[in-house]
Amino acid sequence: MGADNIRKMTLTKDILKQLNLFSEPELRQKLLEHCLLKSFEKDDVIVRQGQYIKVVPIVISGTIRVFQTKEDREILLYYVQPNQTCMMSLSACFYNNESPSQAIAMEKTQVLVVPTRFIAQWQKEYASWNNFVIKTFRNRYDELLHTFESVAFDHVDKRVLEYLQDRASIEAINRIEISHQQLANELGTTRVVISRILKQFELEGKVILHRKMIEII
Amino acid sequence: MGADNIRKMTLTKDILKQLNLFSEPELRQKLLEHCLLKSFEKDDVIVRQGQYIKVVPIVISGTIRVFQTKEDREILLYYVQPNQTCMMSLSACFYNNESPSQAIAMEKTQVLVVPTRFIAQWQKEYASWNNFVIKTFRNRYDELLHTFESVAFDHVDKRVLEYLQDRASIEAINRIEISHQQLANELGTTRVVISRILKQFELEGKVILHRKMIEII
DNA sequence: TCAAAACGGTATCAAAAGATACCGAAGTGG
DNA sequence: CCACTTCGGTATCTTTTGATACCGTTTTGA
Q1: Per residue in B141-168, pLDDT tens?
Q2: Cβ A138–B138 below 8 Å, yes or no?
Q3: Is the Cβ–Cβ distance between A123 and B130 less than 8 Å?
Q4: What's the pLDDT at B4?
Q5: Cβ-based contacts of A130 with chain B (< 8 Å)
Q6: Domain A7-153 coded CATH 2.60.120.10
Q7: Which of A93, A123, B32, B122 is the most exposed place for a label (fewest CB within 10 A)?
Q8: Which of B137, B144, B59, B5 is nearest to A137 (CA)?
Q9: CB distance B141–A138 less than 8 Å?
């Protein structure tokens, strides 16, 4: 939320309706009173590594990519879709510290900006809010555990194939628009390794390689 | 909780006092009514990979090691100390599924066994319980994120040194009793790699190697 | 006591990944 | 249109880690 080019917009009931998360009318009223609607353009920085976080962004539309970097290496943690929020924001509500991760908008993205001071309080008062908090913690932990396990135990080629298949499955497509460098950034390795592996896959008849696009057979 | 050699013992107020987690007298009364005290010997299996979990074990004394395995490889997730619980138990309360991890007692260990059906309910009713749940989620996530980052970005030798230094620091000792194979199991690699790295450290004057013990200089 | 198991050191070889460099093709934007 | 950037293929070499084997020493437990 340190990005200078944030657009604050009017939060209305209609916009809030796009979130199918919170059922209590009283809570929805409080969201209208205390929260903002913000809009980001593609590639806008939402959270920087090391940044102190004062708000929890719940995605209404669009996608946020959360990742770790070290020197010139980068690895995906997760994507934040509509009706979701990011872990470092939620974490910061209960013990404010610096974000270990970065968050960037992948496309034009609208978020509901919730001040952190309400999170713990609303958790006690509203079941749907508590449910959201717990589900976020739980799902993000499971997801990270899965990623951790494959980084720890699997070779990169297996992880590449799994990534492509997951993505094809989720998006119900077989033509994945991604460059080799982007794929390297998702998996925490280098572009050359990815190119090498993908070429091997092409020779094995698993994929057809296009420029910035990979077709799964 | 599938281990056949569990010893059920009497849960008394005095034993419950060893936990400095829960402040409400009403909650402490409910813990006395609904929970059990169980005891494990060193090397007892507390949770198996793939097992469905019906209880949340809160450690009163002793230590539990939680880890992931794949084929004959193994990597530490975390240790559960007194006043703590494990993540797959807590996770199972909100959506029961198979444990992705294994848990083993590292020494004689006593745990408070809380049936999962009370977790979500008590979370709404007792602030200290909610605090425990949230803190567990948060701390375990942060911890896993840190481990993930070093597995993803650091070489094994760096991770070895960091492990040894962390352990020396936490235990306020400089003689760490661990075999090369155990260290390999903590870090998800092989014994030979560990031996090689440690030998290099010895040549560099960072450690002195003993049998089943490493002395940090 | 002694056989077996565990431990750790070392060697050899292989596989995986990284680092660097170069190049031709495609895309971008002034 | 054209200079520049991006993309991806490939080569070469290096580093890191893994796999396997062997061995001498120490520990364990019957």
Answers
A1: 999 999 999 999 999 999 999 999 999 9
A2: no
A3: yes
A4: 46
A5: 123-124
A6: yes
A7: B32
A8: B137
A9: no
